[in-house]
Write a structure and sequence with these properties.
Helix content: 40-55%
Structural class: alpha/beta
Mean pLDDT: 87
CATH class of the largest domain: Alpha Beta
Number of strands: 12
Number of helices: 16
Length: 454
């Protein structure tokens, strides 16, 4: 278990600034004496007491509500005392200073960022996924992201991960026991149907990986880049997507010299859209700099909208972007300016791209659906939980070890030690998701990103 300073801690748990209510949170072992000193009464656990908050001399600081949660029935698993007063900056600082001063004898100190949630994790009140969900719920930028974070906080994601971990443990137990008793190794693989069990686990991992990848976009967001030749309508499409004039539109080629960013939400997913300088061969040094920035934006993107003029549907993207830049990139060819064609064009999504008009708005809804489809989501789909990139990486690495385990299982009983090692490595990877492993650096990194008071 991760070691930590067991001294009692205190912090302002509400956001900085002025507000109707502000909360001071205190957590530690055996806080009854401090609560009596601060409140002048012995608080009843989980009962709201309305009373004055005074300093050592009896001078009134504020009046409000005090609630005492005795261990282990609290957020941190320790004794927790919350003082709810008026949310002015000066009032909160005065209350906190008084609390720290009065708790000096028991070693009370200011909490580090995320330390309350860290203690909740260490005391088995929440696992690592739920701890991250606390921060994700606070930082959610859409109702869909908040909903998914709440599901993670409730333990939905953890249940799926722990179920897989239990199946791996069951299989590891069989293999390790057989290694301990060599006389039982004969026909072990066939007798215990190890290969089918590993194959079943592979399918479960792949399903979990697919769902988790889709859920990552809710927390990490999506980076979409508009790329193409000058005058194909990139800036017009940018403005159409946002419903306002974000970028300058002109018939003069090369108007956009720098990358222009805007932020919107697509079905609850936060999206950063970047309009870029047109790709073409030029001797203009300023325009060359803009094209270089376009390539940088392409490299860091999740989705590339390759914009072409439907009247001259030739893409220049590959001429400027190396195969390395385009590797593993989601690319949608957008045939723009269908309003300029003499004949009517079906603006629905096709196998090779989407037909749109940035001027009339035709095809924009199909383009939005195509973007979601490209990342494995459907319009209106609800995510079962919120995930992070590290969760995806852990599942991918665990899956790699499972594939290796299956390979060694095919070697019959001659590679049981290697099979056991791959299953152990898989188990370690899946354990990093919920925190059921020993990784001080990982835990320190996660909790240090929390705000003070959480």
């Amino acid at each position: 278990m991760l070691p930590y300073d067991t001294a009692p801690i205190a912090a302002i748990a509400t956001a900085p600034g002025r507000g109707g209510i502000g909360v001071i949170r205190i957590s530690g072992q055996n806080l009854s004496s401090l609560a009596l000193s601060l409140l002048k009464i012995k608080p009843t656990p989980r009962h709201a007491h309305y009373l004055p908050f005074t300093d050592e001399t009896g001078e009134l600081i504020d009046s409000g509500i005090a609630i005492f949660f005795n261990a282990p029935n609290s957020y941190t698993g320790e004794d927790v005392l919350e003082l709810q007063g008026h949310g002015g900056t000066a009032v909160m600082q005065a209350l906190l200073s008084n609390v720290i001063k009065r708790g000096k004898e028991i070693g009370l100190r200011l909490a580090e960022p995320g330390e309350f949630s860290l203690r909740a994790f260490i005391n088995n009140k929440i696992d690592l996924v739920q701890a991250e969900a606390v921060a994700d719920l606070i930082n959610a930028s859409s109702a869909e992201a908040a909903h998914a974070a709440a599901l993670s906080l409730s333990g939905r994601f953890s249940i799926e991960v722990n179920a897989l971990a239990d199946e791996i443990v069951a299989l590891r137990t069989l293999v390790e026991a057989t290694l301990d008793f060599p006389e039982e190794e004969i026909e072990f693989i066939e007798k215990h149907q190890v290969k089918p069990r590993i194959g079943f686990l592979v399918q479960k991992f792949e399903s979990l990986l697919s769902t988790t990848k889709r859920s990552v976009y809710l927390s990490e967001g999506l980076r979409v880049v508009l790329a193409g030749e000058p005058n194909v309508g990139k800036s017009s499409l940018m403005n159409a997507l946002f419903g306002e004039n974000i970028a300058i539109v002109s018939d003069i080629a090369g108007t956009t010299r720098d990358s222009i960013k805007g932020h919107l939400q697509l079905d609850g997913i936060p999206i950063t859209v970047t309009d870029t300088a047109g790709l073409r061969f030029t001797n203009d040094e300023i325009e060359k700099l803009g094209i270089e920035r376009t390539l940088v934006a392409i490299e860091s993107s999740n989705v590339i909208l390759d914009i072409v003029d439907i009247r001259q549907p030739a893409s220049i993207l590959k001429s400027f972007s190396s195969s390395i830049l385009l590797t593993n990139k989601n690319i949608i060819t957008v045939f723009n300016k269908i309003d300029l064609l003499e004949t009517n064009v079906d603006h629905s999504s096709t196998n090779i791209g989407v037909n749109v008009s940035a001027v009339t708005g035709e095809g924009l809804s199909e383009l939005r659906k195509a973007i979601l489809k490209l990342i494995g989501r459907q319009l209106g789909e609800r995510s079962p939980w919120l995930a992070r990139k590290r969760h995806v990486l852990a599942i991918e690495q665990g899956l790699d070890h499972l594939h290796q385990a299956y390979f060694f299982a095919c070697e019959d009983d001659r590679a049981l030690d290697l099979l056991a090692e791959e299953l152990r490595l898989c188990h370690d990877q899946i354990g990093t998701i919920t925190g059921h492993m020993n990784a001080d650096v990982l835990l320190g990194h996660i909790f240090s990103s929390f705000c003070i008071g959480k």
